[in-house]
Amino acid sequence: MTAFLRWIEAHRYGALTGRRAGPFGPGLNVVYGPNEAGKTTLASLVGGILFGWNDGHGVTNTYQPASGERSGALLFCSDGGGSGPVALQNPSAYSVLERTGTAPLEGDTSLVRDIDQVTYRTLFSLTSDELLSLRDSSDVTARLLAAGSGTSGSPSGAFIGIEQRIAALTAPEGDDAGAIPYLERRLDDLRDQVQSASREAELARQECRELRELRQNRSEAAEHLDALNREIGELAAARDRIGRYDARSGALEEESARLEDEQRAFEAQASEAGSINPRLLALDAVRERAVRSRLDEYEESWDKMQRIVETAEQNSASSRASYEAFLEMDDSDPSRKRRLALKGSQAIVSVVPTLAFIVAGILLFIHGRHIGSLSFTAFGAALIVLAFLLAAAGAVLLLRPDRHSQSLDSRRQDAQWVMLQDRKKLDGTLADAERLKREISAYMEDAGLGTAAGSLRQARLLMEEAAQVRAQRAAADQRLSALAVRIRANRQEAQDVAAQRAEALDSLRDLPRLDDPLQAIEAALQAKEGQRGALQGLASDFDRRIGELGERLQHAASDRQLDALKLEYQQVRTRLRESKHDLVELLLAKRMLERSMALWESTGKPQVYHEAGQLLSLITGGRWVEVSLAATGSIVVRDADGNEAKPRHLSLGTCQQLYLALRIALLMNAGEVGRNIPVLADDILVNFDGERRKGAAEALARLAQKRQVIVFTCHRETAAALGRVWPGLPVVDLRDTR
């Protein structure tokens, strides 16, 4: 059971944040939206989630968001074998693939187990530029074969590499240190040198002649190298000049994009008021002055109320302090202490004699009764009576009221009454202040100043902020006008730069005919630099050989030379044995590749090119009817009259239609590659006319019967053509997902 892509979620990717696109069906789908709606960004997001983000250099867009890391998710669900609707309300029906930053892919990675990045880039991610990039390519068959087989490299490329290595090992005239003929010759030379000492003199004379020839060759190579340096300098100057034009053009594009972004930001800023109440922004000058006047009145009333409250608080604090002072004075008054001490002395004077008389009277009374003496008994009773009289007199003295204490109590009660009255007045004043505060808050709420929370100072700040916002809106309108003027100026300058670049290109001659002029210049520079590098290497070899010959001639008679020759002889024997072993391995690998490629040639290629021819005939309305492979390995197309043509001889649109047919044919035959991955086509029909757009739509519909296809376009006619060949076509309108 296969799965298909249902939703694309852009958490943070380029200019997209928190965006979801979908739902998509298992067959043919269309994503429609105007320029800069995010179509190419979404298509790039799918590849980034599946195989990692693009970290290209130069002008390549990496879609790095302004803040945070790139993040997104793909939601897949099973198509039930290709029939029946999906239960969208069941979350368990979804399989999720998610990638954040540099973290590895998370989720059900089995969905991408049968495809690699090269296959996806070659077959599944189709753009108009990608179709155009295959034009004039001699390695098309190898690239398509590699993509269809799911390998990371081209089998034909590997075959060529093996042949080159075999040729390097078996080159009869090669001077490579690993070439077998060279090693065998070197081994023979060393054997002769070791075995025959008599040949040393002749060898020295030969080396003298060789030294003279090498010096002559070194001088000629230096002259040729100077000429190459001049040519390279001229090409580099032309490249730099055109590069500056391209850089300026790119800078103008970036500046125009930045200005347009700034224009949109100002437009958004002009439409936003932040947290300011709309009623404040709608105030005119008359109403604003009325509100400010009312706030001034409330501020004056509030200041007056604050002074009343402060006076009441001071009076209350003063009366309370007076009352507490009376209390403290009563506790610390010296006269009161003296009165208390006098009272104590009086109590002692009253109690001590009384107790003494009572004790003495009781003792005398008891003693008189004991001895039977009436005088002792009577005297004891008299002492007891006297003691009671003394006690009564002391009690009278102690209980007599003190006029000074009564005066102090009266003054303390007066101070307490004043304190209570001041406290009541303070409470009333605070209540009046609270009512005024509520009245101010109610007026602020009604005037749109509710966020000031009753603060007159905050209300004034809000009024000032609203005035600033109104002023900023007026300034933003002026800034938008200025930005529009700059954008128009940038576009005019971009046209001028393009004209200058065209003039510079017209001045170039004898360059390879490539679509990209800079690429042609680079190709010429690389060729020249390759020649220069070869000459420099040759000159270096000359210098090295000249030095070797001079040194060898100088030490020709040295006995140590024979030992060095013996050591070199053993080293060459070892290298020769290793080179022969490598040659056997390479021959075996070449044989295995030949068998594998022959098997694919006899089974896969005929069916792929047969179906590609049928699709090309469908797209071109029978103009081109057959696609085949020439003996040289290049692609050949044949029209209805039997005339053959190579892709480089076709028009831009027909060439793109050819490679679109080849890709669709491969996708229809490579059924086990990327079964769950959708085919993404980003405006690939932009160079097709109406009839061929209709044929291409039918070809995509055939592919959609086997695989999920999602077409991104900004052209209504493209969406309409696809809708005619696929009833009930799901259309995701990016204008509805902002």
Brief rundown of the structure:
The protein has 738 residues and is an alpha/beta fold. Among the domains are: 173-268 and 495-589, no CATH class; 286-448. The protein has 18 helices and 13 strands.
Fold topology:
Elements: E1 3-13, E2 16-21, E3 28-32, H1 39-51, E4 71-78, E5 94-100, E6 106-107, H2 117-124, E7 125-127, H3 128-133, H4 140-149, H5 155-170, H6 180-195, H7 200-270, H8 278-281, H9 285-332, H10 334-371, H11 374-399, H12 403-446, H13 456-506, H14 517-554, H15 560-619, E8 624-629, E9 635-639, E10 644-645, H16 652-669, E11 679-682, H17 690-704, E12 709-713, H18 716-725, E13 731-733
Structural descriptors:
five-stranded parallel beta sheet; 738 residues; alpha/beta; five-stranded antiparallel beta sheet
- Poorly predicted ranges (pLDDT <50, ≥5 residues)? 80-89, 134-141
The number of distinct helices, counting runs of at least 4 residues, comes to 18
Fraction of helical residues: 55-70%
**Describe the biggest sheet?**
5 strands, antiparallel
Radius of gyration: 54 Å
Structural class: alpha/beta
Largest sheet, spatial ordering of strands:
2-1-4-5-6
